[in-house]
Write the structure tokens for this entry.
Amino acid sequence: MLRCEPWMIKGKDNKFMDIRNIAIIAHVDHGKTTLVDKILHTTNVFRDNQETGDLIMDSNDLERERGITILAKNVSVTYKGVKINVIDTPGHADFGGEVERVLKMADGVLLLVDAFEGPMPQTRFVLQKALNLNLHPIVVINKVDKPNCRPDEVHDAVFELFFQLDATEEQLNFPTIYGSSKQGWFNTTLEPTTDITVLLDTILEKVPAPTVVEGPLQLQITSLDYSSFLGRIAIGKITRGTIKEGQQIMLCKIDGTMQRSKVKELYVFVDMGKKKVTEVQCGDICAVVGIEGFQIGETIADFENPEAVEIIPIDEPTMNMQFSINNSPFFGKEGKFVTSRHLRDRLMKELEKNLALRVQETDDADKFMVYGRGILHLSVLVETMRREGYELTVGQPQVITKEINGKKCEPYEVLVVDVPADFSGKVIDLVTQRKGEMLIMETKGQMQHLEFDMPSRGLIGLRSQMLTGTQGEAVMAHRFSEYKPWKGFIPGRNNGVLIAKSAGKATAYSIDKLQDRGSFFIDPGQELYEGQIIGEHIKPGDLVVNTAETKKLTNMRSSGTDDTSRITPKIDFTLEECMEYIQQDECIEVTPKNIRLRKIALNEEDRKKTQKMMKADA
């Protein structure tokens, strides 16, 4: 029998509805978004003949391309007369700022774990946040249809993880569900069923309805939305009282001040969208329109007795990068937004919803220091800006150091690598060169499971080397652990780069002649400028080369024989790989159409002068 209390909102036929608020947490690629798809289909959100595609919740182009969830999202479904608010959270620790705030809206969590991989670093990171908020967990062991899966071992590993994270007696007594999101079944045993109703029934049974607190209104803003018609929309869960359309309220600001405001419109989440209502009761998640100048973490409170909810602490950034205007010779050719004012306005706008980000203005009006949780966090921002039409230059990522007890300290991370046993020696060698120390080495089926403790600096540029050294077989994941004393010098890139000597079009003739000097990042016919990085040298040290040289024609030779040049295909870098590849005297030019590597000083003479000055200072 479902629990019904007088506060519960009325359904279509005026009967009272029960509510469950649940967040889905997991490591990257363990199947969160696929599970949400199945919940939406099972609860008949769509017509039987409606084409919906896969990964319905990954609405952002970047999320679809990368196959990861970046932004937390809400949907609401009705099952057996109970309204279930489902929050899909990101699995990557770099987007932890999203996770920390949205968990405040939930009363329970579905912890999704891969039946082969088991709990991974990001699983630990997100679970710790959920347990600290006293949320009720349901463990879902997913992908039991995979070959070599080991659900029983994974269940024991999850229990061990709960124990390590100081879970309460009640939390340790978690229910476990087995199944496959992709195949669309879940059960309390490994016996396949025909649907996921066992999971939905477990949610109704094990996740408590929100606790109802009578009294003056309290609603903490944990998320925001934007509409070109309505403006900025505040989203959060009502923790006390009720909220009504047209109600006078007080906004409790982060700095302690109070701001008078009025609720213009109210919406609750229904299926994939929102539905306008006149009143929302305690325990439900709603969207409020009409409040100006709010920030995430602030409280919408009663007008007469305003009381703020405690602000959510967000983990500090561990990495920074310099963002500046594009000052290359190709400035303004490809982007719509190219000035420092455009760049500043866009970064300030990002701060409103990206809680883990910090932006600091520098002495130079064209440059900004941007602080984030990791390379992926910063690269998603750069990629989003690029797609919006911005041109900018970004520098090498640097870790943020702190002084603790008089000692210089840097961030450390736990690195987890799963790799075939044949390549484990290569992985250990690569990590130890970068000051990593092995913590765990164990066998998982055909794979070797390795865990290391290493400085965050050592992770920059490690992924590409690791994939090359293991023929693409290594699966890497890492999470921030703590600040520890500075570990000393860590070797960077071994080889130098090939630099364009002058502006002009690259020719097949000159690239062909220079192939024994290194690997190229460009194609013949590409426009270049002086100081652009066009390839990797086979030796340490940089080499300036002329790629614009054309074949001298004589009576005996014709330009047509250029076709006989056999050129190795260029190396294509993603934005993250570029960020990991560059050194201190290099930067990345990012435009809507191209990503180019370049030296900060484009002129060769200027670079030599800078090097001399650096040697003199040393």
Summary: The longest helix spans residues 151-164. The radius of gyration is 27 Å. Residues 1-16, 46-71, 91-96 have pLDDT under 50 and may be disordered. The chain is about 25% helix and 30% strand.
